[in-house]
Amino acid sequence: MQDNATAESVSPPLLTDRLSAWAGTRGTTEQVAVAVLIEEGDVLAREDVRDLLVVDTETAASCDWPRFEARYRNSLVLDASERAFLDFVVAVSFPRLVPLWQVEHLGERRLVVVLRALVALAGASSTVTVGSSSC
Q: Which residue of 4, 53, 84, 118 has the smallest Cβ count within 10 Å?
């Protein structure tokens, strides 16, 4: 009976943990793209986004960037902020051009996430502060 209690108390790793573990084996761009998705949280929480992006075996997870890039604009119903954010994530993970005018659609919270990702991609010091001063 104690074995059942032990088995029930052991949960599979969270999707975000499995994605982070996978990203750790990839290049910097994919590591940053996964970190951005996890930090932002809302987009990755959407089942339709996960179904299109994540390959999940419940013990391991990865991102299928080519499949996602080929289909997300036509398959997902996105507002301007979500689309701009995902365009950026795809451009980071699977290098593509992104029109900079899209930053106006990000909103403050997503803009901070994007700016942190740019700092990480640049290999800049962790002392670079994003979001603490007003313009």
A: 4
Q: How many helices (H) and strands (E) does the chain have?
A: 8, 2
Alpha-carbon gap, residue 135 to 132, rounded angstroms: 10
**pLDDT tens digit sequence for 27-61:** 888 998 999 999 998 999 999 999 999 999 878 89
CB-based contact 92:121 (threshold 8 Å) = yes
Count other C-beta atoms under 10 Å from residue 115's C-beta.
16
Inter-residue contact 84 to 74 (CB < 8 Å): no
The owner of tokens 């982070």 is 20
- DSSP for 40-105, please give it: H-HHHH-HHHHHHHEEE-SS-EEE-HHHHHHHHHHHS---HHHHHHHHHHHHHHTT----GGGGGG
Q: What's the CA angle centered on 31, arms 21 and 125, to 5 degrees?
A: 120
